[in-house]
Amino acid sequence: MCANCSDTALNRRSLMLAGASALAAAPFGAAAMAQSAGAAVETPDAALKLLIEGNERYVANQPRQQDFSAGRASRAQGQAPFAAILGCADSRIAPELAFDQGLGDLFVVRVAGNFVTTEGLGSLEFGAAVLGVKAILVLGHSSCGAVNATVAALQKGNDLPGHIADLVAAMKPGVEPALAQPGDDFEARAVIANVRHNVERLKQAPPILAKLVAEKKLLVAGGVYELATGKVALVA
Fold this sequence. Notes:
Layout: H1 3-35, H2 44-59, H3 72-75, E1 83-87, H4 95-98, E2 106-110, H5 118-129, E3 135-141, H6 145-156, H7 164-179, H8 186-203, H9 209-214, E4 219-225, E5 232-235
Parallel strand pairs: 1-2, 1-3, 3-4
Antiparallel strand pairs: 4-5
Helix pairs in contact: 6-7, 7-8
């Protein structure tokens, strides 16, 4: 074989190998990009916008293709979530799915009734001060059993078993304002009132969150997830 022919064959083989390598790596590269979607978020407003856009994809049933197994090794080295969610423990809501985010993008604290506890506050302080989340979203939802139980307790004084009574007692300050408003839909108004109450608690929580909010390094917002549609409506 002549030298020119040999060089041509070698070049062709190199191109084929390079093309095959690129094709093989493409899915993993896309997965890595999806996993780090929140890494470039620099402002609180951008963090909230990313959550809203993700929820819009979820509602439209057009989520990003995500391989949750991809990136496990890199996630083991640390985490850098861009937002935190204070959500309800309700089994019908999965924040990563509802906001179409990858593992490692959201720092999630959950308790029935999505209200602030001492432990939850400490967790959110860790998320903001140590992990660098730019936004905290207090996420209530329609047909919330904890809120409904609190409404019933305020209206009828019902006796609840075990520590469920403690949970309801803790939620009463957030829910009670809804009962003073006109109208019959106490429960829907109570969900919103509870979200607003806990948003304000986080905004004013010293020494960490209040300082970050005042410095405009952290945004605290509220939203309500509609179980029937998956839509999250922000609460003013």
